[in-house]
Amino acid sequence: MTRVVYESWGQRVVYGSGTARQDVAAEVTGLGASRVLVIAAEGERALAEDICKDVPVVAIFGGVRPHVPVDVAQAVRAAAREHAADLLLSVGGGSTTGTAKAAALTTGLPVLAVPTTYAGSEATPVWGLTEEGHKRTGVDPKVLPRVVVYDATLMLSLPTRLSVTSGLNALAHCVDAWWAPRHNPISSALAVEGVRSLASSLPRIVADGQDVAARREILFGTYLGAIAFAGAGSGLHHKVCHVLGGAYDLEHAALHSVVLPHVVGLNLPAAPDAARHLATALDERSDPFGALLALYVRLDPPCSLRELGLAEEELDRATDLVMAQVPDSNPRRVTRDEMRELLGRAWRGDTPLPVPLTALRTQERPQ
């Protein structure tokens, strides 16, 4: 590679454990805000109220829904206007952060994000909106949260299953960054460290959900993966998940956990650099794909699209929707039959398989 283009994004990040309330108050003051619209799903309203006790809150918007439907975006924008908000403060997971981004996209208001899952949306300038079963995404610096306040103790009540699927969503940001349209050595290096942090710490919280140090390490890996993704763009894995999530309203984090190893099995034989990065991150030089599957065995995440609610009769339509979004930069050409097979295996929960290199030699992209 003789030319590298990498774009970084300016953001203030505060890490703590048990310090969210004072950190949020200090950051709101630092931003000079006096009319804060808090965005939190109803299930996290009490947490948001506690965190924001020392913040000049003018209203709380609770209408958060997965994949940010357009009507939700319109409602939160209207709330920001009605209450003359000068800061959007999100407390929650990726859907909550995404709702704040939807408001920032048209209002230009700054966002302060307090994540309660490992979604990573708080560290990217990517927004997403869903309308009539179609999820649109884009990149705009206006939606990047100005400040992120991480507090590992906020994740202690996160159920094991959601901790695992959310953590694998973070890991997917790392892996997709190795073959995304703008993949580059800087994003790739960040992604290696992100996978290393996540793979070493996720099994620890399966064993002990109250392991604060492990949850802090997962947050570190989450952030590294998110900024790698922000720099590299959206690769095949995220295209598949955005299409399926938008069209069928499937659980976001669990969807990533199901799809990821199947996409890795498809792409890795044609992506030697990605294979080397995965081997380094998982400390398994001879069989990095096997090491990824071994991690899945330890974490025991959802492994089929069927259990997420996708009907088998939708697989042909889903294949067509995904094929329209396959990035030109993908390390190998993907045929419709191959994508249909991938989705079929993911639907059934079959063990992910690598596509042999011998089957790729006539399909490899020119160098």
Would you give an account of this structure?
The protein has 13 helices and 8 strands. It is of the alpha/beta class. The strands form 2 sheets. A 6-stranded parallel β-sheet has the order 1-8-5-4-2-3, with helices on both faces. The radius of gyration is 20 Å and the shape is globular. The N and C termini lie close together (11 Å). Mean pLDDT is 94; it is low at 359-367.
Strand content: 5-15%
Question: What characterizes the major β-sheet?
Answer: 6 strands, parallel
Number of strands: 8
How would you spell out the order of helices and strands? EHEHEHEHEEEEHHHHHHHHH
Helix and strand composition category: alpha/beta
**Silhouette:** globular
Structure annotation, total helices: 13
| Radius of gyration, CA atoms, in whole angstroms | 20 Å
User: Strand order, biggest sheet?
Assistant: 1-8-5-4-2-3
Euclidean distance between termini CA atoms: 11 Å
Pick out the low-confidence regions.
359-367
Tell me, rounded to a whole number, the average pLDDT: 94
Helix content class:
40-55%
Protein traits:
367 residues; alpha/beta; two-stranded antiparallel ribbon; globular
Could you outline the blueprint of secondary structure elements for this entry?
Layout (H helix, E strand, L loop, with lengths): L11 E5 L3 H12 L4 E4 L5 H7 L5 E5 L8 H13 L4 E6 L1 H14 L3 E5 L10 E6 L2 E6 L7 E5 L8 H17 L8 H23 L4 H21 L3 H13 L3 H16 L4 H11 L5 H12 L15 H9 L12 H13 L19
Parallel strand pairs: 1-8, 2-3, 2-4, 4-5, 5-8
Antiparallel strand pairs: 6-7
Helix pairs in contact: 3-4, 5-6, 5-7, 5-9, 6-7, 6-10, 8-9, 9-13, 10-11, 12-13
